[in-house]
Amino acid sequence: MFRVAICDDEKEYLLTEKELISNYMKTSGYQCEIDTFTSGVQLMEKGSEVARYDIIFLDVNMEAMDGIETAKQIRTYTAKPYIVFLTAFVSYALEGYKVDAIRYLLKDDKMLEKEMAECIDTIVDKMNYVENKHTFEFQEGRKTIRLDAVIYIESNLHRLEFHLLGQDKKTYTMYESLDRIAEELQEYPFCRVHKSYLVNMNYIENIKRYCARLSNGDIISISQSRYNDVRDEFTYYQGDI
Question: Residues with Cβ < 8 Å from 112, sequence gap 6 or more?
Fold first, then answer.
């Protein structure tokens, strides 16, 4: 699952950029969430949550807080996202290096689609990104699912419930121990927050005392004995330390 933010105060370009990115992801077979912002100030209201994005597209020439300043503030929270600048000018390269920007894209109606695709191709290569799929024997039958679509796995009366991303909030079930599934998925960004919950850290919005709020609105309990380890693991995963 790619998480992308676009920040541009020109609404026409904002919609165009979103459409180009969405089309690229669909054509490439990638799942993607895209959030849009009309100012750097609005984006930075998310604070440390900017670390959840894989790619952030920033218009350089925005009022109140321009793209360069927005990028500098992002870097005070995290080095994780790839930053791409969009601009009608070509004179900002030095400033871009200071915030580790990966690319500048010119707002040229004729070239933007091609340049956008080449830019994301480069980022995908650098991320060594692979759509991780896994086959499970569910009660509903043998299914191959994308692991990045699994929000969390819940153990309930010796039965596991896989809660998946999607408008229909699909859930698959199996009779298996959460310990064994956690071991099987240990190479992926899942965190054992409770004896009954294994959570995909990509979907954790924030952690407060003994609970995690997920991007789908669910609130998952964190056991007291695991709380410090879960908090540290999530902080490390975000790239805040």
Answer: 16, 17, 20, 105, 106
